[in-house]
Design brief:
2 domains, Aspartate Aminotransferase, domain 1, binds pyridoxal-5'-phosphate, Aspartate Aminotransferase, domain 2, four-stranded mixed β-sheet, three-stranded parallel β-sheet
Length: 396
Amino acid sequence: MPGPGAYWIGEEERREILEVVDSKYWFRYGNLQDPNFKHKVYDLEQELCKQFGCGHALATTSGTASLLVSLLALGIKPGDEVIVPAYTFVASYTSIIFAGGVPVLTEIDDSLTIDPNQIEKRITPKTRAIMPVHMLGNPCDMEAITDIAKRHGLPIIEDSCQAFGATYRGKNCGTIGDIGAFSLNFFKTITSGDGGLVSTNSKDLYERAFGFHDQGHLPNRTGVEVGNRLILGLNFRMNELTGAGALAQLRKLPKLLTRLRTLKKSLKEKIADLPGIAFRKINDSEGECGTLLTVIYESAEKAKEVGERLGTGPIARSGWHVYSNMEHVGAHLKSVGQPSGFGAYPVTDDMLLRSMNISVGVVDGGLGAGFGVNINSTEEDVEAVAQKFRAAYLGK
Ligand SMILES: *Cc1c(COP(=O)(O)O)cnc(C)c1O
């Protein structure tokens, strides 16, 4: 039960991938003049820049790798604090921790993304970056966040792993801050099985991210440069097979988002008249992905009750997207003197106990979205899901 891109894997992906298979050249670097080198990873980076209007793109092995190399590119060092929401996937925290930094969790608001009004309270002399996360395809309030970042001279790293293609006021999420990270894992908007991308408009950040992702090398080498590397790096290079699949998926993104937004609108309209029903706030109703429909109930009891009738539950029960469910992260936070465990972020705790995700395109129990429709659902399917939800909501 994956993300919408996986539902649409077809002839285009097959063609791109087989081209690489047959070339027997599966490594991302090569001579662009060589007809046997299919340069899919290179094309993927170029096409992302064109589609999203960003200066530079870098393909990696995962969203987690993208976050890590982005943090390192920004110069995050041991002890540096990074502000991050209390509702996000575990990788937002672990990437900060492995960069040597300290995740400083911050309450969310009813958009289920970081509450800009809470950010300044969390800034200390050790703060070095803000990491807004565009959760569930919903863009963060980037205007307010950018304003705070500017006033405090802090860079923004956007975790866009759940928001591939989302826009905020016409700009693609991931290209608004200083650097942005995307995921291509199986549960995301588009997929190559696993994989990731980094975007930035800064040549300097791009070259640093590139170096960290490839043993300190400068971009797009054709051989091994000895004596020319200024930073230490690791290996998070994407291979050509992954690049080929991702390229075919990226080309489907506009159509896929149109379909998701239509489906979501239809489903929402069919339940919006229920007495007392409320949905999460969408910070840009034109630009969100439309991958999930989130209902916020007036009480945790009601959320639990309706969830049980539908074979699902509140977001609070959805595993590693909720800080208080991450026992290993909690232990780490405690060891560095940060609040941890249920109760540490009461506004977030309350919000997640009262919220339920209905799938539109991302059908993922791990996100609390085991109930709903998928991208291939028909209008009749949407109607049936709406009727099921109405009955459960009304207690029938
Ligand atoms: C999925 C996800 C990641 C990590 O992406 P991977 O490709 O699985 O490494 C990071 N942050 C968020 C918010 C995510 O949902």
